[in-house]
Write a structure and sequence with these properties.
10 helices; 13% strand; globular; 369 residues; alpha/beta
């Protein structure tokens, strides 16, 4: 009987500023090691929500941060966000991560070229899909949940501290602390905002709706739109009639814009936009009134408008790191069944589809400007 080869996962240090999540939680590492077909190396990381000791205690080998380039050739380098910036060296390993390069985002060819030059492979977490085309693991719920929180908090800041810069966002130990903080601010204002969630039936949108409810926003103040409501095609004047607009759609093809500059220059109630979807550099961005991502230390853009009423927009592309422990635990547990198939990735459908898509995207570089 042929024994199953050991699969070596190497959890790299995250280098994106303010990123506290992890693709693998200590709990999931423990389950993988108990399976007997895995060994796991974890890089030390001060920013990660899980202490290095939590990984060591379950049997992971600990190594210095940012040492993955020297990892054995068979190690599968695992992470969440993009690799360190200003590095164009070839990538000879197999990587599992959100690479943000399959929808022609800015610099997409540069990312894929590194794999081509190094003869490496990319399994993009965004495109690990089951037989029904549904992602096997996603941060969508917590992206919407925290996006809704930022939107309501930004609106509160406009009411309580008009004209003052919105403060830096820092991670919360758990969602109860976040909910309590927002409730206190809403109580001081004495009125409640009207919020629209676009893509309300999806993972992300359901998270946005959930936070609004938990913060005490009444159902009649939560406008829930999905494909049925957007079928007529934008732009949508209804967005101008709410205080907060949270975009949670999954953009897969070109669609008419949801919002135009002409609309925001005219009379409107709208004062806060949270673009959780963050198709910022996508040529089909449905919110074409901005083109840069915001950050936790500078969360809101002031959108220029002929209307004197302020309009601020949040486009942070890793919002779930506001609740890093809950978000990481949920994601890693959702990913676990698929990770357990890694030793058979040459035949396991989720992995074969992901590898096929990688090669298709590489081939498309030759035919795409």
């Amino acid at each position: 009987m042929t024994s199953t080869p050991i699969t070596h996962l190497w959890l790299r240090e995250e280098t994106k500023p303010m990123e506290h999540r992890a693709a693998l939680s200590p709990e999931v590492c423990k389950k993988l090691l108990e399976n007997g077909n895995f060994k796991i190396t974890v890089e030390n990381c001060k920013e990660r929500i899980f202490a290095d000791s939590e990984y060591a205690e379950v049997g992971c080998k600990m190594v210095p941060g940012d040492s993955w380039r020297q990892a054995p050739a068979d190690a599968i380098i695992t992470g969440l966000k993009e690799l360190p910036e200003n590095d164009q060296t070839p990538l000879p390993h197999t990587h599992i991560m959100f690479a943000h390069c399959y929808k022609r985002q800015a610099g997409w060819k540069d990312v894929l070229s590194r794999f081509v030059e190094g003869k490496g492979t990319l399994y993009d977490l965004e495109f690990l899909q089951d037989d029904n085309g549904r992602r096997v693991a996603a941060f969508g719920f917590y992206a919407g949940f925290t996006g809704s929180a930022v939107g309501i908090d930004a609106w509160c800041h406009q009411q309580l501290h008009a004209g003052e810069k919105y403060p830096e966002i820092k991670p919360y130990p758990n969602e109860d602390v976040l909910i309590g903080e927002i409730k206190n601010k809403l109580a001081k204002i004495g009125k409640l905002p009207k919020i629209m969630v676009m893509g309300a039936l999806g993972r992300c949108g359901s998270g946005a709706v959930s936070f609004a409810r938990k913060a005490g926003i009444p159902e009649e103040n939560i406008v829930k739109w999905d494909m049925a409501e957007t079928a007529k095609g934008g732009p949508f004047s209804e967005i101008m009639d709410v205080d907060i607009f949270v975009n949670c759609i999954y953009l897969s093809s070109q669609i008419p814009p949801f919002i135009t500059q002409q609309q925001i220059d005219s009379d409107r109630q709208l004062s806060v936009i949270v673009d959780v979807s963050c198709d910022t550099t996508n040529p089909f961005n449905p919110i074409p009134i901005y083109n840069v991502n915001t950050t936790f230390d500078n969360a809101l853009l002031d959108i220029k408008s002929a209307n004197s009423k302020p309009l601020q927009l949040c486009s942070i592309d890793h919002l779930p790191t506001m609740l890093p422990r809950e978000a990481s635990n949920q994601f890693a547990l959702d990913l676990l069944p698929t990770l357990l198939q890694l030793p058979e990735r040459a035949s396991a459908p989720v992995w074969t589809r992901a590898e096929k898509l990688f090669h298709e995207k590489v081939a498309s570089m030759a035919t795409t400007d």
